[in-house]
Amino acid sequence: xxxxxxxxxxxxxxxxxxxxxxxxxxxxxxxxxxxxxxxxxxxxxxxxxxxxxxxxxxxxxxxxxxxxxxxxxxxxxxxxxxxxxxxxxxxxx
Length: 93
What we know:
By secondary structure, the protein is mainly alpha-helical.
């Protein structure tokens, strides 16, 4: 099971449709991190082991790429949400 979970990010990357490539503004991510430090390290810069920054409302559903639409999410939970979002957003196109 652990091997399968380890493969999920690669599978998502290889199967990501065009909507997933929507550009994120690095300045918005930095602003989010400044006000919401990493839950694992407490730092506003650098890596955040085990966590990802996620859009609450997906960009493909007119979610804005701004700090108030971002949250920290455990990496494992993000895989599940990403699969759902990929399917839902593909159905919208």
